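Input chain follows. Return structure tokens only.
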Amino acid sequence: MNILLIQLKRIGDLILTTPAIAAVRKKFPDARITLVISNECKALAPAIRGVDRLLIMPRGFAGIKTLAAVARGGFDFCVDFSRNDRSALLVMLSRAKKRIVSFRIKMRSKFRTRLYNEFVPHRMRDMHTVDYHLALLAPLGIENAPAAIDLALPEDVTTAAGQLLEAHNVRKPFLIFHPGSARAEKFWDAQRWSEVINHAAEHHDVDVVITGGPSLFERTHIGDIKSKVRRQVVDLSGQTDLLTLAALVARARLLITVDSAPMHLAAGTQTPQVILFGPTNPFHWRPRESRALILQGDSTSPMAEFVPKQPRIPMNQISTGAVINAMESLLSSPAARPSL
């Protein structure tokens, strides 16, 4: 049996597709499974389990090689997790006997509707993203599959993370603060970040590590935070690739972050975390299989109830006290990691 899985969205979407990939592998242990991902997600590829062949789909003419590979694939089943024009083209070229997508395609594009022959009656906006991906597997006879994120960090990545910590003299249990995101609207106030970092450094015998991406506006945000911090911090922003960051998160005692890729990496490595949500809805994206306290809006307590529809909420509604209290709650828990 030859199965094609298509996920062309962002890194977080791909991470939240790993339970579905694992479920397909378990159902069809002898199948040849091909996964197509976007070029933006290539860094995550070595951590994806259960796939026999992984194809990268760049944008524009650079994707012709991948299109040709799919056209020659001879697939029996095809599942489109992305539901966009590029994934629809891959579905068409696959000529799979069973071509699966959400029924929402019927409402959005009459042309694309013709490319599929199995429509799953679920909407992404009504479900957690993991549940939506798993629901698309129903036509393959897969139901009630585990929802745990499935990532396999290569040994060399784990070694590189250890060497990075050693090079920066990180010898105590450490906390990771990841304040950045690809979207500036997810930034939390630099002064508030500094107050949380100062509190952690002054009240706990830990090292403090800051991580972040290489973009100028993210590095500027981190620089602003550091200028207000009274204690020494280890700044690893821009110094790690995605999987090395995942290995660092796996060794951390606690992650404090905004809604971004490290949140999903922490869920995959079972690292406790405090997550600051703003314009995105945690109903769809929150970790559920690992210990996470989620903050949004002006509540002083972590969220306990989640709804599929809510207005966009500014990040600045989250108070410094709410983040400190959530952090203290996890650090005082017996389940918190005691050491490296």
